[in-house]
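User: Quick one: structure for sequence A, then sequence B.

Assistant: Sequence A:
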Amino acid sequence: MDRGERIDKDYLFNYIISDDEDSKMMVRETLKFMDEQPVMKIRGTENMSHEEFRKLTHDRVLKFLSMEQTDLYRLFSSLKGCFATSEIVGSHDTSFSVKMGVTTFLFSGAVMLLGTQQHIDKYIPLANDSKITGSFAMTERGHGSNVRYIETTAVYDKESQEFIINTPTESAEKMWIGNAMNCHYSAVFAQLIIDGKSEGPHCFVVPIRPIGAPPGPDTTLPGITTTDMGRKSGLNGVDNGWIRFDNVRVPRENLLNRLAEVSADGVYSSAYKNPTQRFNAVLAALTPTRVTVVCSGIGAMRTALYIAIKYSEQRRQFGPSQKPEMPIMDFTTHKTRLIPLLARSYGISFTRVYIADKWINMTPSTKREVEAVIAGLKAYATWTLNETLQTARECVGGVGFHAVNRIGILRQDLDIYCTFEGDNTVLLQQVAKDLVAQFAKEMARGGMFTGMLSFLGSQIWHKVKENVPSVFHSSSAAYFRTPEFQRDALSYREGKLLETVSLRLMHKVRRLKMDPFHAWNDCLDHLTQLSRCHIERVILEQFHDAVEHCAHPGTKRVLKDLCDLYALSTLQSCSSWFLEHGYFASGDARRVRENVLELCNKLRPHLTDLVDAFHLPRVCVDVPILDNVHSWSSARAKM
């Protein structure tokens, strides 16, 4: 097939990773480590026993943490490098990726982001030297998403100047705690109570086992009980467990006190006087860990797409009479299932790079917008991840169900990504809440839309306010592939959803006198649809920006086609909405569908380059179906 001007794969790899040289160096070091260290080999581990696999996962984490580029001071001083490295780690075994995340980004991240210098000086050198590993204890039996109402208590004792950490009820037991059976310390969230008054959830460093103690339930310190949760549907290299505290005393200094302090005589102080603002600040400080989930998901998505596309280009089935069988990648149903997902993966990658830069350069005026986009991107990316894994598994047929070929295992392991580090549906509510609040504020000021709502320029807002929008769409294929058409369509949809859901909420609260909670609950389907549309538009804008600034001509042309495919396949998925609201005529929906098919055909010759540009570690794609499928498929084609 004629590829025309070729993609520069090295250029494209660097383009989707980071614009930062230190990040690129960290990624190169990680790739080298993955392929050179025997402990990182994946092939052959699928038949390990539960305990063998757990030990291997723990050994991998310790070996990885011994590298220079995983120095925790370096990681947290170079968040761009941290996020880029997380993508490479995510392409490997997910148990390793998650356990790495628990020990570095969750435990050490809590110390670095919620603690002060005394905590950093005490715990980070020990973690850097692999003398300790940590866990992160937030989720409880009774409360997962609703962290504000966790039941674990930390009662301050003025006489001893200690906090007494306790599990008062069964529902307060910490649950799903990764590394629970190995950790020496845990970052424990508990209700801080002074003189009978709760100041809300705060984070404490609690010793779980003595330094140097072997793993297991019998090596914990007095008052602490860890219970192994056993085998799960996936991630069986991670030792998840329950943790109970029976009046465990920790020094006052073990409160991570960047945002709040308790004096020796029990006086509570914080720069945040409003408890809600203080609680939100605690969670916001941990937002980078949510970005690492997106990064890890991107890595796994790339692995699945690489295996599925490479296999499908070689695997032959059916064909014209008396002719050789053809590669299954040439069937329309394969192209229209896999290539739009590949396009989406690139769009998510560019948005991840964008959001990393926005987080690092965040100001008080952009904070709410950035946190909302991160929440929405985590939901969208991990839903896309699971869709990709299922589609990839189906597209390679029965061999995708074989554990050694990785896709089936990844699908089992990564299913949990939709509900950990924030339940996706709940995260979309956070996005919607910020959009609706900003909309009400801007409308009160006369509709001068800024920040999150800057997409609502006068032209789009005018169309939103019309019952039937005054739009005319050209019938040419080129028109549907213009950034203006794509951006305007998604902006109109988001604006219309925002306007109508705001009116619904107002009607329920003001006219029907409904309680705001129940009014919100009544509109959740509408609100989550709005949030998803918001993230789809943000991704499109970052994709357009990436195409515009791409410096390599051949790569730029292919990225433009990928971007068009992302935009039009997104519009195709909600074409009924556009028809219902009069933004599309029936012919428009048909032309969108025709463009999607044409773009899939146009991109078909570039698939090898597009997945090779991921530069995945060899160990991550060392699977039997890519060893010998070409030889036996060729033999069958001659039969």
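Sequence B:
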Amino acid sequence: MNSASLQVESPPRQTGNAWGATPPAPTVCSLTDVMSEELALLLEKEENCKISKKSKNSEKKSPFEENDEVDGDTSNDLLLAQMLQHEFDRAADEQLRLEEEQYNGNSKVSLSFSHYRCVHPAIAGDEDDEDLSDGHSDNEERFVAPTFNRSGVAGRGKSMISKHDAALNAKRNAHRLMEFPCEFESGDSRQLPLPNRVFNVLKVHMMNESKRAQRLHDKQEKATAEQSLDSKTRLLLYKLINADILQNVAGCISTGKEATVFYATGGKSTEVLVPAECVAKVFKTTLNEFKNRDKYIRDDYRFRDRLTHQNPRKVIHLWAEKEMHNLMKMRYFGIPCPDVVLLKKHILVMSFIGTDQRPAPKLKEAALSAEQMQDAYEQVVEIMKKLFRDCQLVHADLSEYNILWHQERAWIIDVSQSVEPVHPLGLEFLLRDCRNVVRFFSKNNVPDVPSAESLFNSLTELNFTGEGRDFLSQLQEYEKSETLMAHAAHNQKEFVFDYFFERSLREREDDDDEEDDEDEEDEDEREEEEGGEECAGDAEEA
């Protein structure tokens, strides 16, 4: 048998699998069919049909939607335009409704904007029905109060009822509770009887909470408690930067109970001379941390007539103005303190005490040797003597925290609470300053530090005896005497005349110097013009 003649038939290849017949392969759609608009509309219509079958309560459709389902053709441009206009009108009416609610507010007399509505007449009736429902469904029970006559009685016989009926009032109060603002979470209380006493307590509580929320909102908007930067303060700083008085405002240098100090760089303004490095002291408008400010102002004759207790911001403006005047007065008598650049409401711009953006350390934090500490004590005592005798001021809060050590000198800061000796508590404030100074330097082992009473007598040139309460009682009797008042008033008049007289002289000298500079500039310009004309003539001759 020839092997070539043998033919072995192979069994047919089975297309199935051991688990059963294979499912038919899905039909493949081309990209053009997928992107077809007709296919998309068909799928959308099928989806809408499924949703409509599942929904139990179908809403009434507009005539535009009905025509769209019947025709199934969106090639009609007029129908598309009407549908778009319909959606636009609904959005405009919704915006008009919000404006109407905002305009009327809680007023008893309301103004209607229905004349300006542009909703289509085909669905106007449906929307009016929805508005009349007032948010209540048919299943909700509504409270209908009976009509009472002048005597406050409704009905006759056994059905007679008074307007003071407990059950009627309880039901009415339960429904009135639902009219409270949304912020008052009362829940659904329509089925809960509410007596008049309980309802009145809830109503008073709701009114108090509303007033408290309004106060908190105003406080957050106007207060400058956290870092002293509220919206108005930021606006003032932006104005100073836009006026080129300040170039920028950097980080916080220090913060205290009354103000916060920020580092700033001076601008290029020609109207105000601003140093390259300066500070912006922002006074806090809240009186929570420093509530006894008024006792430093109410007896100061410079600000007594302008003090008000109603507006805290006005008190802060006086506080900032008081520090500006005290600094200018101290600077006039040569006491080392910051220079005042300008005052803008409750923002005081001053010169910076320090170098290269590093503020000078406080006397409490400065690492001084024994010789430097002795020198610092002598400087502080001399400053207190000059401050009391020449400036006629008492610091009233002098301590190691309000004294800076810079370039081997003691600098005085924070003089907003400083008062004059004629203040009813001026000498008591001075005694307190003496105690703070003596305590600090005695603690740092400075030799030959006298007692606070001895230092007070040396500064004031008075001879009070005793210590503690005896010394304080003598001091208080002297404060009430007329001798101190007359002496301080005389010194104040002399200072005012000398200060403003010398200030006017300096201004006149500055004006004369400016005029001389302008004359010199004009002469230089004339000489340059004449020289230019001569050069032009020589060039023409050549």
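The chain has 15 helices and eleven strands. The CA atoms of residues 229 and 235 lie 9 Å apart.

User: Thanks, that's what I needed.
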